[in-house]
Amino acid sequence: MIAALVKTSAVFRQPAWLQAARAAFAFVMEKMRDGDGRLLHAWRDGRAGARAMLDDYASMARAALALFEATGEPADLEAARRLAAETLELFGDGQGGVYLTAADAADVPGPRPRHAHDGATPSGVGLLVEVFARLWHLTEEARWREAADGLVRAFSGAPEGIAMSPLLLMGVDMLERGGAVAVDGPLDAPAAKALAEVALRDPDPAISVLRLDRRLWPSGPPRPHLPPVDAPAAMLCRGQTCSLPVTTSVELARLLAQSIIV
Known about the structure:
Blueprint: H1 2-11, H2 15-31, E1 43-44, E2 47-48, H3 54-71, H4 74-91, H5 124-139, H6 142-156, H7 166-177, E3 179-184, H8 190-201, E4 207-212, E5 233-238, E6 241-242, H9 249-258
Parallel strand pairs: 3-4
Antiparallel strand pairs: 1-2, 3-5, 5-6
């Protein structure tokens, strides 16, 4: 829901929806935790439920990335990194795959469940592949590409078939042909805002958005190989290759349209 609010806020130009997404994210991160700092699965009338499962952690990491793409706030990227790393620690099987329940879960009888099926809600595995793919495109950090590849290997050969896991398939597509639009310039600069609006409204789910205000990254940008620009500009990056910078909304829209791979 948080990620959907962020996306529709950009598409329909409704800043109040972005504020609602931020408030929801803050509530979960601040209130829905136990004494050890672990996320909780549910909250009702001031009462907390059981500890969160794989889907919960993956969804919150994805929400943090959605907020980061929309706002450029470094704290959102750090939250996504932290949630992704904690997900691997709590749910990982040590061989690239994940379970649906944490290693210390005491309220689930029998073997720990694991599958990548999408049902009424997206599977945690599919969400997690998307999270790792987006982190890879936004930061170029090899650990996220390796984590994504490990998940794909762990679940793509399941006997029940990959056709029941469309979100996992989308994550593979995002890994292979996806990329990031880097909008370089102060967050409050009108030209940078205009470029970011075009990138955020782009319908291709394989494209992430990196809003880069270098004043907020004194030790260097998330993608360390991005060349500096003299004025707000945008580049479309796939892997470690980026396009030439463009400086207008029209140029960026044309660049994104030409980059679609069918």
